[in-house]
Amino acid sequence: MKRSDLPSLDDLRAFETVARLGSVRQAAGELSLTHGAVSRRVAKLAGDLGLRLFEPAGRGLRLTRDGAALSEATTKAFALIEDSLSAIRAAPGSGPVVVSCERSLAMRWLIPRLSAFQDRHPEIEIHLSTGGGSLDFTRERVTLAIRRLDFALDPAWAVRELMPERVGPVMGPSLRERFALGDYVALGSRTRPKAWPDWLGAHPQVPRPRSLRLLDHHFLMTEAALGGLGVALAPEVIVSGDVALGRLVAPCGFVPDGTHYGLIHPRASGLSEAAETVRDWLRREAVTG
Fold it and tell me: Which of 136, 49, 125 is nearest to 93 (CA)?
């Protein structure tokens, strides 16, 4: 048979799905087609090939000998195509550099730095994805991930520490005196509900707050502090810009909490030249703050 004589790919896909699932109805659901459309494609394939592919079996269908042979071949062929496409999509250099980063870190540390990087490297396309904790690089199509290293790390990952996590109370300048008197609302994040109790336990000389309020994310907590709603126990990396500009003050400074942020990527797949450029830039930014 010449390649030009091969039947329609759509007809082959309909047949393979019916044969694999054993049901026209289920095949229609998987292919997002009507029952009738799937039946017509399978009937057309049988007519084009001059073969009987299915035969009645009670209320259902079963493959004939020719149908079984074609089913095995089409299943293998479609699996090969799917595997090849997955490999192509996952290959270094086949698309933008996707950087996955924790939401607050992305908003208050990474995004403000991206403009300068893009000015220097307009040829590199960076896409941002927000997330925390573990991830599946292949399924989520992520190139590089920045994470706080407080969870189990896969040995198949290459992990490079970027910067230590340092935390401390920050507030608008007008709240400094009330903080010293213990007349303040402690602002925390629901992602780290024990942060304030742990920090106060390590700093018994600091006056206790009159109440504790938890917000969903560190960036919301920081915005609340900027708005004068209380004193935020914040990671230095999240608030360093506001402290430098005097919008927030940190009377107790920042102390390490024992964790680090890290840059992660799979060892096996390697990195494209563009991804290596992004990786090296992130390392420099972490050092310079």
Answer: 125
Q: Indicate the angle between helix axes 35-49 and 24-31, nearest 10 degrees.
A: 110
pLDDT of residue 84: 75
Closest CA relative to residue 53, chosen from 62, 33, 37: 62
Q: Would you give the DSSP letter of residue 171?
A: B
pLDDT at 83: 74
Question: Which residue type sits at 208?
Answer: R
The pLDDT value given to residue 93: 53
Beta strands in 140-200 (DSSP E): 144-148, 157-170, 185-189
Report yes or no: 186 and 211 within 8 Å, Cβ to Cβ. Answer: yes
For 185, phi then psi, to 5°, come to -95, 125
Angle CA 17–21–26, to nearest 5? 85
Under 8 Å CB-to-CB from 190, ≥6 apart: which residues? 214, 215, 216, 217
pLDDT digits (tens, 9 = 90+) for 250-265: 999 999 999 999 999 9
| 52/79 Cα distance (integer angstroms) | 24
pLDDT number for residue 208? 95
Q: How far apart are CA 280 and CA 195, in angstroms?
A: 31
Confidence (pLDDT) at 1: 57
Q: Give the CA dihedral 113, 174, 211, 219, nearest 10 degrees.
A: -10
Q: Which helix (H) or strand (E) holds 54?
A: strand 54-57
Residue range 10-26, pLDDT digits in tens? 999 999 999 998 899 88
H or E element that contains 27: helix 24-31
User: How many Cβ atoms sit within 10 Å of the Cβ of residue 116?
Assistant: 11
Regions of the chain short of the pLDDT cut 50: none
Q: What pLDDT is attached to residue 4?
A: 59
Please give the CATH topology (third level) of the domain spanning 3-90.
Answer: Arc Repressor Mutant, subunit A (1.10.10)
Under a CB-based contact definition with an 8 Å cutoff, are residues 131 and 259 in contact?
no
